[in-house]
Amino acid sequence: MEETENKQPQSPSKIMTIVVVAVLTLVAGGGGWLAGVALAPPPPEPGKTAEMSPEATGAEGLPKLATEENGIVELEPITTNLAYPSENWIRLEVALQFNGAPDVALAEEIHQDIAAYLKTVSLQQIQGPRGFQYLRDDIQERVDLRSDGRVTNVMFRTFVIQ
Fold this sequence. Notes:
Radius of gyration: 30 Å
Helix content: 40-55%
Oligomer: single chain
Largest sheet: 4 strands, antiparallel
Number of strands: 4
Strand content: 15-25%
């Protein structure tokens, strides 16, 4: 009797622990697969392909979203030096989203206005995330004034300071 009272309760063996972990892993993997199948869109049918105009594709044949049919005009890259320090350069590529049909002449005016504005900006004004946000707001305000509301959005594609 003394032997049975002194024995401590035995913990489950290592094999049982491994089996439980393996079963739970399989259940979790199966649940993830089931959720992925339920939420994923169905694959496109091989017979149906989207017809795209030749000018709406990029160099790699991928669809190009910034087209005049979508009301978006990509401006030429702007490269200019900053007001202070003048040895620093800025390169900015933007696209304009028009409300309705795009106006290429207006886009060129806006391009020149942005280039002239960037020549007046100092490096301290555009440093950090807050400075970049101020630059975005200033350019958006200038575009709104120049376009009389015909441009709804200014999209920054690249922004590099060297």
